[in-house]
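User: Quick sanity check before I run a bigger batch. Here is a single chain. Can you write out its predicted 3D structure?
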Amino acid sequence: MNSRVRHLAGAALMAVLALPGLAFAQTATPVAADKFRDLTMPFDTRMVAHFFGAAKPLSGESVELRAKGAVLLYLHRGATQLPDGARVTVAVKGGGGQELVRWVTELNPVTPHGFIRRVDLPEGAASIQVSAVDRAEGGPTGRPPYTLILEAWPLNASSSVELPGRGAPPERAAPPERAAPPERAAPMAARQPSCKMVGAPAKRPDYIEKFARMDLSGLPAGVPVQRLLSAGGYLLISPPSGMAAGSKLMVRLRVKYSGDGPYVEVCPPTVLEGGTTQSIEAELPSQDAYSIWRVELTLSKPLAAKEKASLEFTRERVLVPPDPFRAEPGWNNARGLACFDRVTQFQGVQQSANAFAGRTRLNITLPAAGSVPIGSAERAAAETAVLQAASLWVYSCVACKPDNLVVVSVNDSIYVSDTLYRLAGPPWGFVSPPPFDPATAEQMLTGFLGSSRIGTGAPFLPYRRTENPQKDFVRLCSVNATERGTPTLKRVQEALCAGKIAPGTSANIRVNFKSGETACGSDADIVGCRADNELTQYNVRDYRFTVQPSGISIGSGPVEVDLLQAVLHEMGHWIGVDHLAKGESIMAPSMEQARCIDFETVKAVAEQALGNSGPDKPITPQALTLRKRFSSK
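Assistant: Done. Predicted structure follows.
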């Protein structure tokens, strides 16, 4: 566990332990919502979830968890805007099945987070039984689905919680002492995903929803194209509509559970033909609300102009409301481009002089809104994509300085890392906290900034916009920092607080959309080009770059590609990473191979950070291509 996680978890646990009246006689103790993530962050891989079904007010539904030690229970509603609450009963049972303690509460429908309770099991207790009677009638009354979701976490290494017969979610990257290939990490048959062809979904119609659609006319023939989807534990791929008989679409489905682990295959390559009525239905053995599904689609031949073919994707409706303690939904999709599958031994370099790893601020220039092909919506979508790409590279830089790119400027709009915003941003209450002293501010920044790195289990968090940095971060900006005594604080102040950015604190990237001609040439196979030490170019003549999950596209080319995937690759060249023809590295020279940030990619970034090369080293233009088998003319 990294130092930030240990600090947060330890502080939060002490706060909870200090609550009055905490004893085994009172086993369900309220926990403040703002302590939730601090408590659960180290144990996300051991979380289990249960979805309550169609509970009637007279009977309700009960689930029994096998548990020991300290456990956190989080019960929330799988739909919003319901006028009725729910009665929740928590009972602790002994090894012989006898009930030791019972605790009853009413779930207020107005409270958005449901309830969060810590349960301390007396030594020798065997289980926790959670019963819920939902006051909403649900389906029979025509209201939206009312399913309640129970999530449970162990709160220390000696505690455990599991659903009998289901086991725990597959683990993320194994620690060094038991490192095993991902495919052998969970051999139990009960943990295997299921995949089958169906004529109709097995789920109740009011429990599922169509949430994404893909235009197949934008697919090149013979080339696998990936789409990343946040769909939780269930995904249904509809029959391709509008595709003529004889046309074939090969579908390969993989999934990545919450965290930084690799993708695992859910369905072997499956062919959907034009005119078929069969859907692909896939389900995971345990509910993981933050699983990312990677759908790889390959057309057998180019579609005719009249074929307006498309695919629709369906997920469980109960997974729609975003967890308020996690990153925004769109950023969860972006996390799908990280597939780190090993435990790294690299250590952070506090004084890196590398032109990427040693910079605190990144200045990104996008074409102004109103310029072709950028409107206001397209520019906003592109802004999100470059922020996500920057965040992913920072997330993967295990050898970067703690303050690496904690500030990003996009056309003069200032964004800061979520960690910095929480540490030193605007106060949440009405009373401002006292100012920092230099030593405290330095210790805080070096201890927390940079702790959210790939492979640590820490969440992938977004950048936050700040309208007025000097006002929002006045406490931080007013501290008297020195280069020798508080170097991290000094760099953050120079990147965030000063009107003029100090030399050596920042780096620059320029993004341009070109109508065919790039510094790498004008070939239709060229998707993007890293032109020089700052400029990245994207070919909008032959491609249209789509931002997910909004679906907004930039460009008018016949082939649709993921803008974030392309930007992430080109930004990797800016960091100083050359093409990597290994594994699934996002730095592969061809887009059908450039899938995600894997171990080889992380290793290459670390080598750049440990050296003194990077964006300032002499380069020649490098192109990202897509192997097409048809002419776009």
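The mean pLDDT is 78.

User: Great, the batch can go ahead then.
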